[in-house]
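Hey,
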Amino acid sequence: MFNLDYTLNQLDRDGIYVIPEPIPPEKVMEFNSFLGAFDKWGSHVVAQSGGRLATDESVFACWPMHVSILAPHFFEKVLELSPIADAYLEWKSLLYSINSFETRPSPSNPVGGVNAFHRDGDDSKFISLFMLSTHVFKPEDGSHEFVLGSHKDIPGMGVDGREIKSVTGVAGTLFFAITSGLHRGVRPMSHPRILTWARWGVSNPPSSYLHDQLKPIDSPMLGRRFPADDRTRRMIHLIAK
């Protein structure tokens, strides 16, 4: 379990918090095996792929949202950790996406896009839970970097001279991040990196939900995995109903 007050204090201070216990390796293998049975699209979200499947030349590849929702284990972990998001968002959170994407190797970190420091503007207030779906033992394996405290910046503040948190770890490593702060994914140098993430916001729906052209799956697709309580069902109605 997690200490809610401690986690919220860390998030408020730093904008990022690594969950102490990763998802067990056998569960990550099952999750990745499920993804591997489906086609990948040529961007980090399907809506930006231009309707094209990923090729060997694609910098990014991603799966449609329903694949990441239906894949075993991560959906359940999202629900387990949702009280953290709900408390951060003052008990009015809406889970609006669960997605996975792959970043292909390159000897250099390209300028622009998710590999450059940037801020997300998904909603007026929002938070994300990430899972390293492949091993990231060192930054050049594709670490996630976050400028500590940058979620509290005033306009115009940048990266120079500031402390940066680099998230590495075994496949299954989990971390929350308030990605209105400055962050980036380092481009891996030797092997593809898969990152999976869930997002909660307060709007119904957030602007990024519309921008990413997301829609809920039918709840029978989840079978017995679909939550029984009405409050959780309301929280997830943008991804399953």
